[in-house]
Amino acid sequence: MSRPDGEAARRRRVELVVLSDLHLGTVGCQAKPLLRYLKSIEPRTLVLNGDIIDCWQFSRWYWPKGHMKVVKRILKTVASGTPVYYVTGNHDEMLRRFAELHLGDFHLVNKVVLDLDGRRAWIFHGDLFDVVMQHSRWLVKLGALGYDLLILINRVANWLSERAGRGRISLSKRIKDGVKRAVAFIGDFERTAASLAAENGYGYVVCGHIHQPAIKTVATDRGTVTYLNSGDWVENLTALEYDRGRWTLFRYRDHEQELERQEPREEAEPEGEAESLSLPAAAALLQMVRP
Predict the structure, then answer these.
(1) Model-level pTM?
(2) Which of 127, 182, 229, 265 has the greatest number of CB atoms lying within 10 Å of its CB?
(3) Structural domain of residue 253, as residue ranges?
(4) pLDDT for 184-197, tens place per residue?
(5) Torsion sign across C-alpha atoms 50, 126, 140, 177
């Protein structure tokens, strides 16, 4: 499909983009900024590292148009010939039974290993490190509902705060940062991921799950590993980008005004075009998550 010259010129070419924890289908998902970001890049490879469609809370009664636009944008990326890896997470764990499904350039997997300039990157969601997730799933799901409620309250609080001329706040981040057990869990998560990566000879380990964006070097008994976490599109609005041998952490709020200015005007899609772009991938994916 041919692209408008102006739109193509605005896009940044990036070798690899990793996104996780979009939580499409929930009130917490920041679909509009996410779509704006997706329209601004042209990745050679796109990895969706878990919790993309939130199957825990997926409902036919709540699926905003903006969330569908994100799905269509991803399908257009597939249709353009870009390899897209959908790595399963805990909120979309029901897709794990379909892992190793390959439809053209769309790949549904539980993990992916990529060679990046001679160093191997091990990419997976990370929920398998979560002991609570493994043994008390009902408690985790209850916590997810509470988290969504907190995000909703946070949005109202931010609206009032901005009207009063103050900055944004993150209630959940303040709670997590203030709870010693939460801080310890994040540290343990990072060390466990890095240790396993070093033991298996990986240079990079890339996770999501804990909504804590990071790029850090971790020294282990088996060697040094670069630990990366792509964050989320509920609070942090972050993505990992790899280009020209270097990892960077994209923070949407650092580029918000620039992306708003660059955003192309909405163009009407020719009837039936979006559906024809990657019909097998779209049909298979939506059938899997439908309650």
Answers:
(1) 0.78
(2) 229
(3) 5-289
(4) 567 788 988 999 99
(5) negative
